[in-house]
Protein backbone atom coordinates (compact mmCIF):
# COMPACT_ATOMS: atom_id res chain seq x y z
CA UNK A 1 0.00 0.00 0.00
CA UNK A 2 1.00 3.60 -0.46
CA UNK A 3 0.29 5.95 2.45
CA UNK A 4 0.56 9.75 2.23
CA UNK A 5 1.11 11.88 5.32
CA UNK A 6 1.07 15.61 6.04
CA UNK A 7 3.91 16.81 8.28
CA UNK A 8 4.35 20.01 10.28
CA UNK A 9 7.68 20.87 11.88
CA UNK A 10 9.80 23.54 13.47
CA UNK A 11 13.12 23.27 11.66
CA UNK A 12 15.08 25.41 14.14
CA UNK A 13 17.13 22.57 15.59
CA UNK A 14 17.44 20.30 12.56
CA UNK A 15 20.03 20.25 9.79
CA UNK A 16 17.27 20.37 7.21
CA UNK A 17 14.92 17.65 6.02
CA UNK A 18 17.22 15.18 4.27
CA UNK A 19 18.93 12.40 6.19
CA UNK A 20 22.62 13.01 6.93
CA UNK A 21 25.02 10.93 8.97
CA UNK A 22 25.91 12.30 12.36
CA UNK A 23 23.37 15.14 12.55
CA UNK A 24 19.69 15.45 13.42
CA UNK A 25 17.30 15.81 10.48
CA UNK A 26 13.53 15.85 10.15
CA UNK A 27 13.56 12.86 7.80
CA UNK A 28 15.42 10.80 10.37
CA UNK A 29 12.98 11.42 13.23
CA UNK A 30 9.95 10.88 10.96
CA UNK A 31 11.30 7.59 9.63
CA UNK A 32 12.21 6.41 13.13
CA UNK A 33 8.68 7.15 14.38
CA UNK A 34 6.95 5.53 11.40
CA UNK A 35 9.12 2.44 11.77
CA UNK A 36 8.01 2.05 15.38
CA UNK A 37 4.36 2.20 14.37
CA UNK A 38 4.92 -0.32 11.57
CA UNK A 39 7.30 -2.46 13.67
CA UNK A 40 9.55 -2.60 10.61
CA UNK A 41 11.98 -0.14 8.97
CA UNK A 42 10.31 2.38 6.64
CA UNK A 43 11.68 5.05 4.33
CA UNK A 44 9.78 8.15 3.24
CA UNK A 45 9.64 10.04 -0.06
CA UNK A 46 9.16 13.77 0.43
CA UNK A 47 7.55 16.48 -1.67
CA UNK A 48 10.44 18.87 -1.09
CA UNK A 49 13.62 19.04 0.96
CA UNK A 50 13.98 22.02 3.29
CA UNK A 51 17.28 23.53 4.46
CA UNK A 52 18.66 23.91 7.94
CA UNK A 53 16.40 26.11 10.06
CA UNK A 54 13.49 26.12 7.57
CA UNK A 55 10.03 25.16 8.85
CA UNK A 56 6.98 23.48 7.32
CA UNK A 57 3.25 23.73 7.90
CA UNK A 58 2.31 21.53 4.94
CA UNK A 59 5.08 19.09 4.05
CA UNK A 60 3.84 15.92 2.31
CA UNK A 61 5.54 12.51 2.26
CA UNK A 62 4.59 8.99 1.25
CA UNK A 63 5.62 5.50 2.28
CA UNK A 64 5.14 2.06 0.76
CA UNK A 65 4.30 -0.74 3.16
CA UNK A 66 2.43 -4.03 3.55
CA UNK A 67 1.68 -3.24 7.18
CA UNK A 68 -2.01 -2.65 7.90
CA UNK A 69 -2.80 0.34 10.09
CA UNK A 70 -5.72 2.75 10.12
CA UNK A 71 -5.23 6.32 8.94
CA UNK A 72 -5.77 7.37 12.54
CA UNK A 73 -3.02 5.03 13.76
CA UNK A 74 -0.54 6.22 11.14
CA UNK A 75 -1.14 9.85 12.13
CA UNK A 76 -1.57 9.70 15.90
CA UNK A 77 0.71 6.73 16.45
CA UNK A 78 3.58 8.30 14.54
CA UNK A 79 3.15 11.63 16.33
CA UNK A 80 3.38 9.79 19.65
CA UNK A 81 6.96 8.80 18.83
CA UNK A 82 8.00 12.16 17.38
CA UNK A 83 9.74 15.00 19.26
CA UNK A 84 7.56 17.94 20.23
CA UNK A 85 8.68 20.06 17.26
CA UNK A 86 7.40 17.60 14.63
CA UNK A 87 3.84 16.33 14.17
CA UNK A 88 1.78 14.35 11.65
CA UNK A 89 -1.29 16.36 10.63
CA UNK A 90 -3.04 13.62 8.65
CA UNK A 91 -2.50 10.27 6.95
CA UNK A 92 -4.41 8.42 4.24
CA UNK A 93 -4.02 5.61 1.78
CA UNK A 94 -3.50 6.87 -1.77
CA UNK A 95 -3.45 5.37 -5.25
CA UNK A 96 -0.34 3.54 -6.37
CA UNK A 97 0.43 6.24 -8.94
CA UNK A 98 0.67 8.95 -6.27
CA UNK A 99 4.17 10.30 -5.67
CA UNK A 100 4.81 12.94 -3.01
CA UNK A 101 7.35 14.74 -5.18
CA UNK A 102 6.52 14.01 -8.80
CA UNK A 103 2.72 14.25 -8.49
CA UNK A 104 2.92 17.76 -7.01
CA UNK A 105 1.73 20.50 -9.35
CA UNK A 106 2.41 23.53 -7.16
CA UNK A 107 4.27 24.58 -4.03
CA UNK A 108 3.65 27.53 -1.74
CA UNK A 109 6.11 29.15 0.67
CA UNK A 110 5.65 31.94 3.19
CA UNK A 111 8.46 34.13 4.48
CA UNK A 112 7.68 35.95 7.74
CA UNK A 113 9.57 39.08 8.76
CA UNK A 114 9.31 40.90 12.08
CA UNK A 115 9.90 44.52 11.09
CA UNK A 116 10.63 46.57 14.20
CA UNK A 117 13.71 48.00 15.98
CA UNK A 118 13.69 45.31 18.69
CA UNK A 119 14.72 41.73 17.97
CA UNK A 120 12.15 38.95 18.61
CA UNK A 121 12.08 36.99 21.84
CA UNK A 122 8.94 34.82 21.75
CA UNK A 123 9.24 34.31 18.00
CA UNK A 124 13.01 33.78 18.02
CA UNK A 125 13.90 31.48 15.08
CA UNK A 126 10.25 31.53 13.95
CA UNK A 127 10.55 34.81 12.03
CA UNK A 128 13.32 36.78 10.37
CA UNK A 129 14.10 40.07 12.06
CA UNK A 130 14.59 43.23 10.00
CA UNK A 131 15.18 46.37 12.06
CA UNK A 132 15.14 48.76 9.09
CA UNK A 133 11.65 50.09 8.22
CA UNK A 134 10.44 48.29 5.09
CA UNK A 135 8.28 49.93 2.42
CA UNK A 136 6.05 47.06 1.30
CA UNK A 137 4.71 49.05 -1.67
CA UNK A 138 8.23 49.27 -3.10
CA UNK A 139 8.79 45.58 -2.33
CA UNK A 140 5.62 44.66 -4.21
CA UNK A 141 6.66 46.73 -7.22
CA UNK A 142 9.91 44.78 -7.29
CA UNK A 143 8.14 41.46 -6.79
CA UNK A 144 5.94 42.08 -9.83
CA UNK A 145 9.00 41.89 -12.09
CA UNK A 146 9.64 38.32 -10.99
CA UNK A 147 6.19 36.83 -11.53
CA UNK A 148 6.01 34.54 -14.55
CA UNK A 149 8.16 31.90 -16.20
CA UNK A 150 11.80 33.00 -16.04
CA UNK A 151 15.37 31.84 -15.80
CA UNK A 152 16.02 32.31 -12.06
CA UNK A 153 19.71 31.48 -12.16
CA UNK A 154 20.54 34.76 -10.39
CA UNK A 155 18.18 33.82 -7.57
CA UNK A 156 19.42 30.31 -6.83
CA UNK A 157 22.32 29.04 -4.76
CA UNK A 158 25.62 28.59 -6.56
CA UNK A 159 25.58 24.93 -5.57
CA UNK A 160 21.98 24.32 -6.70
CA UNK A 161 21.76 20.91 -8.40
CA UNK A 162 18.58 21.50 -10.40
CA UNK A 163 19.10 20.74 -14.09
CA UNK A 164 17.22 23.84 -15.22
CA UNK A 165 16.99 27.30 -13.60
CA UNK A 166 13.63 27.98 -15.29
CA UNK A 167 10.64 28.14 -12.96
CA UNK A 168 7.06 29.40 -13.23
CA UNK A 169 6.58 31.82 -10.34
CA UNK A 170 2.80 32.19 -10.23
CA UNK A 171 2.44 34.45 -7.22
CA UNK A 172 4.75 36.75 -5.28
CA UNK A 173 3.01 39.12 -2.89
CA UNK A 174 4.22 41.30 -0.03
CA UNK A 175 1.79 42.18 2.77
CA UNK A 176 2.13 44.12 6.03
CA UNK A 177 0.26 43.14 9.19
CA UNK A 178 1.33 45.53 11.92
CA UNK A 179 4.97 44.83 12.69
CA UNK A 180 4.99 41.78 10.41
CA UNK A 181 5.75 41.60 6.71
CA UNK A 182 4.70 38.43 4.88
CA UNK A 183 6.07 37.33 1.51
CA UNK A 184 3.88 34.73 -0.21
CA UNK A 185 5.41 32.76 -3.08
CA UNK A 186 3.69 30.13 -5.24
CA UNK A 187 5.32 28.25 -8.12
CA UNK A 188 5.48 24.95 -9.95
CA UNK A 189 8.75 24.34 -8.08
CA UNK A 190 11.54 26.30 -6.42
CA UNK A 191 15.31 26.32 -6.71
CA UNK A 192 17.77 25.99 -3.85
CA UNK A 193 17.72 29.24 -1.80
CA UNK A 194 15.40 30.83 -4.37
CA UNK A 195 12.94 32.27 -1.84
CA UNK A 196 15.67 33.42 0.54
CA UNK A 197 17.55 35.16 -2.29
CA UNK A 198 14.35 36.83 -3.49
CA UNK A 199 13.61 37.94 0.08
CA UNK A 200 17.11 39.40 0.39
CA UNK A 201 16.63 41.49 -2.75
CA UNK A 202 13.13 42.62 -1.73
CA UNK A 203 14.29 43.65 1.74
CA UNK A 204 17.13 45.75 0.30
CA UNK A 205 14.60 47.49 -1.91
CA UNK A 206 12.09 47.89 0.92
CA UNK A 207 14.80 49.48 3.07
CA UNK A 208 15.51 52.05 0.36
CA UNK A 209 18.95 50.75 -0.62
CA UNK A 210 17.86 49.99 -4.19
CA UNK A 211 15.08 50.89 -6.61
CA UNK A 212 12.38 48.30 -7.47
CA UNK A 213 13.79 47.82 -10.99
CA UNK A 214 16.90 46.29 -9.43
CA UNK A 215 14.98 43.04 -8.91
CA UNK A 216 14.50 42.82 -12.67
CA UNK A 217 18.12 43.71 -13.34
CA UNK A 218 19.24 40.87 -11.11
CA UNK A 219 16.87 38.50 -12.90
CA UNK A 220 18.12 39.55 -16.34
CA UNK A 221 21.76 39.11 -15.34
CA UNK A 222 21.32 35.36 -14.71
CA UNK A 223 24.29 35.77 -12.41
CA UNK A 224 24.03 35.02 -8.68
CA UNK A 225 26.79 37.56 -8.00
CA UNK A 226 24.45 40.35 -9.15
CA UNK A 227 22.00 39.66 -6.33
CA UNK A 228 21.98 40.70 -2.72
CA UNK A 229 22.53 38.71 0.43
CA UNK A 230 20.68 35.47 1.09
CA UNK A 231 18.03 36.14 3.74
CA UNK A 232 18.10 33.98 6.90
CA UNK A 233 16.13 30.70 7.02
CA UNK A 234 14.31 31.53 10.26
CA UNK A 235 11.16 32.99 8.72
CA UNK A 236 10.78 30.55 5.84
CA UNK A 237 7.91 28.02 5.81
CA UNK A 238 7.05 25.35 3.29
CA UNK A 239 3.37 26.13 3.55
CA UNK A 240 1.50 23.89 1.13
CA UNK A 241 1.95 21.31 -1.62
CA UNK A 242 -0.84 21.10 -4.21
CA UNK A 243 -1.77 17.90 -6.05
CA UNK A 244 -4.38 16.93 -8.66
CA UNK A 245 -7.83 16.58 -7.08
CA UNK A 246 -8.01 12.88 -7.87
CA UNK A 247 -5.52 12.14 -5.06
CA UNK A 248 -7.71 13.86 -2.41
CA UNK A 249 -4.75 15.32 -0.56
CA UNK A 250 -5.94 17.64 2.27
CA UNK A 251 -5.39 21.34 1.67
CA UNK A 252 -3.62 23.50 4.23
CA UNK A 253 -5.08 26.63 2.67
CA UNK A 254 -3.42 29.96 2.02
CA UNK A 255 -3.72 31.34 5.56
CA UNK A 256 -0.59 32.12 7.52
CA UNK A 257 -0.24 30.09 10.70
CA UNK A 258 0.51 33.26 12.66
CA UNK A 259 -1.95 35.76 11.26
CA UNK A 260 -4.85 33.58 10.14
CA UNK A 261 -5.45 35.97 7.23
Describe the structure.
The protein has 261 residues and is of the alpha+beta class. The protein folds into two domains: 2-103, 2-Layer Sandwich (Alpha-Beta Plaits), CATH 3.30.70; 106-238, Alpha-Beta Plaits (2-Layer Sandwich), CATH 3.30.70. It has helices spanning 26-38, 71-80, 136-146, 194-206, 213-221; strands spanning 2-9, 45-46, 55-64, 86-94, 106-114, 128-129, 148-151, 166-177, 180-187, 236-242. Strands 1, 2, 3, 4, 5, 6, 7, 8, 9 and 10 form a ten-stranded mixed sheet that branches. The protein starts with a strand and ends in a 19-residue tail after the last strand. 39% of the residues are buried.
Supply database-style keywords.
single chain; 261 residues; alpha+beta; Alpha-Beta Plaits; 2 domains; 10-stranded mixed β-sheet; 5 helices; globular
Amino acid sequence: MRIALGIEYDGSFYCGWQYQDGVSTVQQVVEDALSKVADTPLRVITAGRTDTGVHATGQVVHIETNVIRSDYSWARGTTRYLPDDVTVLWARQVADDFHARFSAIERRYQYLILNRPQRPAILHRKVTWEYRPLDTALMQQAANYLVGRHDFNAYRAVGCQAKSPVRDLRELTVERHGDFVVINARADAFLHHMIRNIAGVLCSIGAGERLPAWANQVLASRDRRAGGVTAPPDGLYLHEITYPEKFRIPSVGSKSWIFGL
